[in-house]
Write a structure and sequence with these properties.
2 domains, alpha/beta, 44% helix, Rossmann fold
C-alpha cells in the first residue's frame, strides 16, 4: 500500500510504542522502501507547549507554516480566555484516572489542562508519563472531583468498565461520589490524543469544574455525570 501511494511525508508518533509502530522500525522500513525520497515526521509531545510545537513542525513539513501559527494562536487565545475566567474562582481538587485496572492517573498535558480549566490536579505531574497509583492514594486524597477518562475509551465503553472502580472499599464514602461529582469523559476523542481537540478538552473541563461560569455545550457528547447516568438507567 505504501509503495502504491508513494508518500512524500509520513506522520507518526513515538510518544507511546504500545499504540503505534516504533519510530526506529518505521524509519528503517521507509528507508528500505523509498530511500531518502520520503520524509518521516514524528512527534512526541508531553506538554501543551510540546503539542503546539508539534503542530508547527507538521505545518512546516507540509509547507503551510502560517496555518500552523494560526492554529496555535487560536488555541492559546481560548486557553487564555478560560484561564482569565477561572483564576479568581474556587479551585476544586481533581484526580483524572487514565486507566482503571491497574489504576493510572493522567499525566503529560492533562495536569496543565486541569489548571487552565480552574482545577487543582493531583497524583500526576505535567510533562511526565501517566503514573500508576493505588486505591488507597485516591481514598486518602478524597478529591472534590473524579474524572474517569481511560486511554482510548469512549463514554459508553468506560461506563461498562466502572464496576472495576465501584467495587473498591470506600467508594461510596468519597466526597466526589457523595456530591455527584464523578464524571465520565470521552478520552478517545478529547483527552488522550495531543491534537487540535485539546481546545475542546479544556472547555469540557471548565464546564465540569465551574458550571456556574460555563455553559454545558459538550455534555453528553464529551462528558456525563456518572451518577445521573445511573439514575436515568433506573434500578438494576
Amino acid at each position: 500500500m505504501l509503495r502504491r501511494l508513494s508518500p512524500g511525508i509520513i506522520l507518526t508518533q513515538d510518544h507511546c510504542e504500545v499504540c503505534a509502530v516504533s519510530f526506529n522500525e518505521l524509519q528503517k522500513a521507509v528507508r528500505k522502501t523509498f530511500g531518502d525520497t520520503t520524509q518521516v515526521v514524528s512527534v512526541s509531545p508531553s506538554t501543551l507547549q510540546g503539542i503546539f510545537k508539534s503542530f508547527q513542525n507538521i505545518a512546516d513539513a507540509l509547507d503551510v507554516s502560517k496555518k500552523g501559527q494560526d492554529l496555535v494562536e487560536s488555541i492559546q487565545n481560548r486557553f487564555d480566555d478560560i484561564l482569565d475566567r477561572t483564576q479568581e474562582l474556587e479551585k476544586p481538587s481533581v484526580v483524572a484516572l487514565e486507566w482503571l485496572d491497574p489504576l493510572m492517573t493522567g499525566g503529560n498535558w492533562m495536569p496543565e489542562m486541569i489548571k487552565i480549566a480552574g482545577g487543582v490536579p493531583h497524583l500526576a505531574e505535567a510533562g511526565k508519563h501517566s503514573p500508576w497509583c493505588t486505591w488507597d492514594d485516591i481514598h486518602s486524597l478524597d478529591p472534590d472531583i473524579l474524572l474517569i477518562v481511560p486511554c482510548g475509551y469512549g463514554i459508553n465503553k468506560t461506563m461498562g468498565e466502572m464496576g472495576v472502580l465501584t467495587k473498591n472499599e470506600g467508594w461510596k464514602d468519597l466526597a466526589a461520589v457523595k456530591n455527584n461529582r464523578v464524571y465520565i469523559l470521552d478520552g478517545n476523542h478529547y483527552f488522550n490524543r495531543p491534537g487540535p481537540r485539546i481546545k475542546t478538552s479544556v472547555e469540557i473541563l471548565a464546564e465540569i469544574f465551574h458550571p456556574e461560569e460555563f455553559d454545558r455545550h459538550h455534555e453528553k457528547s464529551g462528558w456525563l455525570h456518572y451518577q445521573s447516568t445511573l439514575n436515568a438507567a433506573g434500578p438494576r
